[in-house]
Amino acid sequence: MKRLFTAGVAALLCAGAASAEIRIAHVYGKTGPFEAYAKQSHDGLMLGLEYATDGSMEIDGEPIVVIEKDTQLKPDLGKALLAEAYGDDDAHIAVGPVSSGVALAMLPVAEEYERLLIVEPAVADSITGENWNRYVFRTGRNSSQDAISNAVALGGEGVTIATLAQDYAFGRDGIAAFREALDGTGASIAHEEYVPTDTTDFTAAAERIFTAMKDIEGEKRLFIIWAGGGNPMSKIQAMDPSRFGIEIATGGNILAALTAYKELPGMEGATYYYYEIPQNPVNDWLVKEHMARFDSPPDFFTAGGMAAGIAVVEAIRKAGGAEDTEALIAAMEGMEFETPKGMMRFRPEDHQALQSMYHFRTEVQEDKDYGVPVLVREIGIDEMDIPVRNQ
Hints:
This is Amino acid/amide ABC transporter substrate-binding protein, HAAT family. Keywords: Amino-acid transport, Signal, Transport. The protein is α/β, with parallel strands linked by helices. It contains eleven helices and 16 strands. It has two domains: 7-141 and 278-354, 3-Layer(aba) Sandwich (Rossmann fold), CATH 3.40.50.2300; 144-271 and 357-383, Response regulator (Rossmann fold, 3-Layer(aba) Sandwich), CATH 3.40.50. Strand 9, helix 8 and strand 10 (246-250) form a beta-alpha-beta unit.
């Protein structure tokens, strides 16, 4: 059984039973452009807490209280709400947010209050890189993990790649990491295109890409990194890039976004999660319970939220409680824990969770209204040399 409290109820409980409960703040973009991601993340967090506590929502007899804070995808608001969670609500640990830009604004607050922030699912490398501090852990994958796995899937001798990404931390960090990851694969990047996050008309960007690529010989791909609405893949595919010999490629995404993949059977890339790929008891439980409760399979960020919930419980158990942040840090550095993706490990140097990624090929299947990312092979932790960027 799940227990979910609003911030107001949690604050009242905190006043009367401060030492008898474990307070976790979920600071995330509940409303705004990424609200689909946010709902998945929150559902996953609650399922992870439930799974890791065998349904009790207690750790060593102390009940878990989850306090929700809506950043609305605004960095200044996210920063203020995290301070409110640590200061007014006395949260022991915070989880979130959805947006990389909001996450970067929140990082100094964790350091100021000397409380843990588990970043899930924001992706930018700089979160566990140049802007990192020792109170920050991340269960979500980072840009380098996305980039290296996609470089493994897409790179090759003589392959020429153009890129399209959103013009903010997620997109720019992602392309920078992808460019670095392509070194040694034989592939090269001929053109990079960045557009505003709310772009819906990709005509001008696509024309610049086509102009840069049309006279290049050999295998050519357009690699797209995108979050939220806009659907650049379908719109650019409608402009027939194949007339210039260009194939579209991208990484994984939420189920709703995979409808565009149906137009591109055979497209390859690397993904963080698709519910039919991992084969392990945690994922089996997640798929079964999510289908029973929501009449739909778990999605991209549901798995990530669950990983964060499991990590919270395992860390508190290992540390002997939630009150001592230093004990929690010591417990979590190097900690291994089972998730819907299999085993994850927090790297001591930057607290990034090392994890498998999945090389996929898109298939059209009769019972699915989207392009299905079918596993080509699992790219394991030991196959990806993820740079430490905080030094």
